[in-house]
């Protein structure tokens, strides 16, 4: 199936499709590793591979054999070096294809109720953030969107109570035995407190941000939940969504972002 001829090369439409897909794959891998130390390893590996193709085309047999060995051993080394990125990639795929995340399937096949109106849910949350921020009390709140958070809920103390500002403030009070860790909120209810969240390994996070913020970011990398962190040190509000942490937000910025994010349907919903 001939598309067109480029010098001595015959390029078919399938070749074009193939090249397009490879370019897309490389671009996605680059996006995944961008900014991390792994990105330099990735570029290095790509350059070695290009050198291999070149020496092979030139017919330099000894060099080709050496680079061939290097590349095959390197593939194993890459799996070890890129374990974090591979994990993130697989989590991302799993996250986007998890059938139980579909609102339609949850509602009609699994007979689960749809989430409570998020506007009603947001009010006590934002009031709590305002109070914690003014009092310089630390806080970490996980707001479920679609992903199943049962594993994280079970890591803490189950509460399962109606959402209210006074209950949230009582949990995050420094005298409360439940103030450490995160509170998980879903479907208008406080599901559990003192929850342990996964911690992000992002090297680009400012050193001033400690484990509360790393946990917020880590949770947003692993799930589609929105995570609010209130700094005990500065009273500042931060929001982590889909692996992005926005810091020093005003209350209205926090409200707008949460409102927009929780309202927007996921692709395929
Ligand atoms: N993996 C985690 N899961 C849940 N909560 C965590 C986790 N790691 C830390 N925290 C919470 O963060 C608190 C420690 O915050 P730390 O001072 O290290 O963070 P920070 O980002 O500097 O925030 P702050 O500005 O409030 O000091 C812990 O007391 C705990 O409540």
Automatic annotation (TrEMBL):
Task: List where the protein spans the membrane.
Answer: 12-30, 37-55, 61-82
This chain belongs to the protein called: Diadenylate cyclase
Instruction: Write down the EC number.
Output: 2.7.7.85
- Which is an annotated GO molecular function term of this record? adenylate cyclase activity
Q: Mind giving the lineage of the organism this protein is from?
A: Bacteria, Pseudomonadati, Bacteroidota, Cytophagia, Cytophagales
Q: What sequence ranges are listed for the domain DAC?
A: 83-253
Give the catalysed reaction(s), semicolon-separated: 2 ATP = 3',3'-c-di-AMP + 2 diphosphate
What family is this protein classified in?
Belongs to the adenylate cyclase family. DacA/CdaA subfamily.
- Family matches, as SUPFAM superfamilies: YojJ-like (SSF143597)
Origin species: Spirosoma sordidisoli
GO terms for biological process?
Answer: cAMP biosynthetic process
Q: What quaternary structure, including any partners, is listed in this protein's UniProt entry?
A: Probably a homodimer.
- Tell me which UniProt keywords the record has, alphabetically: ATP-binding, Cell membrane, Membrane, Nucleotide-binding, Nucleotidyltransferase, Transferase, Transmembrane, Transmembrane helix
* InterPro entries, alphabetized: C-di-AMP_synthase, CdaA, CdaA_N, DisA, DNA_integrity_DisA_N_sf, DNA_integrity_scan_DisA_N
The gene designation is dacA
Q: Outline what the protein does.
A: Catalyzes the condensation of 2 ATP molecules into cyclic di-AMP (c-di-AMP), a second messenger used to regulate differing processes in different bacteria.
Q: Which domain of life is it from?
A: Bacteria
């Amino acid at each position: 199936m001939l598309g067109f001829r480029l010098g001595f090369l015959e390029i078919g439409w399938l070749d074009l499709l193939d090249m397009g897909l490879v370019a897309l794959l490389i671009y996605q891998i680059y996006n995944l590793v961008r900014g991390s130390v792994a990105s330099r390893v990735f570029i290095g590996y790509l350059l070695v591979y290009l050198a291999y193709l070149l020496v092979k085309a030139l017919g330099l047999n000894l060099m080709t054999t050496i680079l061939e060995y290097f590349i095959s051993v390197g593939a194993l080394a890459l799996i070890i070096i890129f374990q974090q990125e591979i994990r993130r990639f697989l989590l991302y795929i799993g996250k986007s294809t998890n059938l139980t995340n579909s609102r339609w399937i949850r509602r009609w096949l699994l007979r689960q109720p749809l989430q409570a109106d998020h506007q009603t849910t947001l009010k006590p949350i934002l009031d709590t953030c305002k109070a914690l921020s003014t009092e310089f009390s630390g806080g970490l709140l996980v707001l479920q969107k679609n992903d199943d958070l049962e594993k994280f809920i079970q890591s803490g103390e189950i509460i399962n109570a109606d959402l209210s500002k006074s209950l949230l403030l009582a949990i995050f009070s420094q005298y409360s035995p439940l103030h450490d860790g995160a509170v998980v909120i879903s479907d208008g209810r406080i599901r559990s407190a003192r929850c342990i969240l996964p911690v992000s390994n992002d090297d680009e996070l400012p050193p001033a941000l400690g484990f509360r913020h790393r946990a917020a970011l880590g949770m947003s990398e692993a799930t589609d939940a929105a995570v609010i962190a209130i700094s005990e040190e500065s009273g500042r509000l931060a929001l982590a969504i889909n692996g992005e942490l926005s810091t020093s937000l005003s209350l209205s910025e926090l409200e707008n972002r949460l409102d927009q994010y929780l309202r927007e349907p996921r692709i395929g919903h």
